[in-house]
Specification:
514 residues; alpha+beta; 19 helices; 9% strand; globular
Length: 514
């Protein structure tokens, strides 16, 4: 029994003191950094003890909360993701410094501990020289010639999509945009990344689809996002969450490893047979092996290596799917939604399509004749960007503008809020593709429109994403017109975690064109 002076403290009181002391220590630990922005002279919403600004982000929604903070506190403000300070910089001139001019001070994105080892070598997570090495090797796989070779694979998935829409139109049924274009982009990436001919639009029991759905389970994904963003000190829980049931995530990862290794082996044995991502990676390996025979220079351990390891290739293939699937399907979903709601815009898109393509199959070259369609997509991505923020981590103490940013601080650029700022976009909630005429773009600071990021670490798949979206829309609109129905939510009901529709989906009808 604890003795304090001459007073003996009973065991239950000792436990109570220990419990209260632990609570106090935890609150102090979680709130210790809450004066950091005040010291930096940066304004922002007041954090609540322990949770920081987590409650606002979750109650209002992350996209809406960032927009409200941006409007209230200006282009520079600070928030707390539980105990972790996050500096937001929304001034286009300062963003250019971070993303381009002083890129070497902000090379890395925020890291996530406990991420599955098979994803750890992906471009999304790699850091510093390792990232530069992989990026330099992977970049040529998205050249114009390589993308042109992938067009037939995208059209194959488009043909399956048209069959699905034909059935819906014949029955006069509404179509779930979320389900329909999620399946389409899944088919595209299975073909262009793994060389697999699946039909997720007709066969939901395909093993590829089954394992993809494990990765994209919305409830588990939402929980993981909250841990990664707001409770990184709980990262040790991630493997436990991912192992729900019978270690399903590991089962899915092993499936994709097996698929990738089998595909790589086939492409090495039969070079030139395919035109997918893994074929290009295998070709790059072979070319680098040949190059290494004649180049004996070894300036540093990393640069002495001339090719990607199989693990690095697997990571790129997996993240190629994970990053490309949701973003492309959302862009298609919201673009068709806008055409269904704005009939005048739809008329102009259909006229442009009829005048320039007619019934000719869309491809890498002829979709360049559809500038107004691209304007529609650009305006859609302004209103519903795939990511509402761009994150970077300061690798050293650095001054940006009048703000001294300490080493290790996460800096976020609220691109979603910027692309809805009336200073740059008058009447920002209005859908207006005319904002993206060549003349309008020339008058606007390019750093006010960043749906794919900017600088050396921008989205490596931007050109492929835009090609896929334009080809799909052209192929569908040659035969169908999107039409609003009673089930069409206007505006769409969005998730609190980003520009994604809720599980109820977003519905329109595709009417056969005559």
């Amino acid at each position: 029994m604890l003795v304090l002076g001459l007073v003996e403290i009973p065991w239950w009181a000792q436990l109570l003191i220990l419990f209260v002391s632990s609570i106090v220590a935890y609150v102090v630990y979680m709130s210790w950094e809450y004066n950091v922005f005040k010291k930096m002279g940066v304004d922002g919403p007041k954090p609540t003890l322990v949770l920081g600004n987590f409650g606002t982000f979750m109650s209002v929604g992350m996209v809406k909360a960032e927009r409200e903070f941006y409007q209230k506190y200006g282009k520079i403000f600070g928030t707390f993701e539980t105990k972790y300070p996050n500096l937001f910089i929304g001034d286009p001139k300062l963003m250019k410094i971070i993303l381009v001019k002083d890129f070497n001070s902000f090379v890395n994105r925020r890291g996530f501990d406990q991420v599955d080892d098979e994803f750890s070598q992906s471009l999304l997570l790699l850091k510093d020289d390792h990232w530069r090495f992989v990026r330099n090797i992977v970049t040529p796989t998205f050249s114009g010639k390589k993308l042109r070779d992938m067009c037939p694979l995208i059209r194959q998935a488009g043909d399956l999509l048209l069959e699905n829409l034909e059935e819906k139109a014949a029955k006069d049924e509404d179509t779930s945009l979320k389900e329909t274009f999620g399946a389409f982009t899944m088919d595209v990436i299975a073909r262009t990344a793994f060389g697999l001919e699946i039909n997720s639009q007709k066969d939901p029991n395909d093993p590829f689809i089954k394992h993809v759905k494990i990765f994209t389970n919305s409830k588990i994904a939402a929980l993981l996002i909250m841990i990664y963003l707001f409770f990184p000190f709980l990262n040790w829980l991630v493997p436990l969450i991912q192992s729900v049931g019978i270690n399903l995530t590991k089962e899915a990862t092993n499936f994709f490893i097996s698929v990738t290794e089998k595909a790589l082996k086939d492409r090495r044995q039969n070079p030139g047979k395919h035109s997918d991502f893994l074929e290009l990676m295998a070709h790059a390996q072979a070319a680098n092996e040949e190059c290494s025979k004649t180049d004996s220079s070894t300036p540093d351990p990393l640069s002495s290596r001339k090719k990607l390891t199989d693990k690095e290739i697997r990571s790129q293939a997996l993240v190629f799917f994970m990053a490309g699937h949701e973003t492309s399907s959302n862009a298609l979903m919201f673009s068709f939604y806008h055409l269904a709601v704005h009939t005048d815009v739809c008329d102009m898109v259909l006229q442009e399509l009829d005048d320039n393509l007619g019934k000719v199959a869309p491809d890498y070259d002829n979709i360049k004749k559809l500038p107004y369609l691209e304007m529609v997509i650009d305006e859609t991505l302004r209103i519903f960007p795939g990511a509402s923020r761009i994150d970077r981590v300061a690798s050293r103490d650095v001054i940006v503008g009048n703000v001294k940013i300490p080493k290790g601080m996460t800096v976020s650029m609220p691109v979603g809020a910027i692309m809805m700022d009336p200073e740059y976009w008058p009447d920002p909630d209005k859908f207006d593709p005319e904002r993206f005429t060549p003349e309008a773009k020339a008058e606007r600071d390019p750093f006010t429109y960043l749906p794919f990021g900017a600088g050396p670490r921008n989205c490596i798949g931007t050109r492929m994403a835009m090609m896929q979206i334009k080809m799909c829309m052209a192929q569908v609109l040659q035969s169908f017109r999107p039409v609003r129905t009673e089930r069409t939510d206007c505006p769409p009901k969005l998730s609190k975690l980003g520009n994604m529709v809720t599980d109820e989906g977003l519905w329109i009808k595709f009417v056969k064109r005559t």
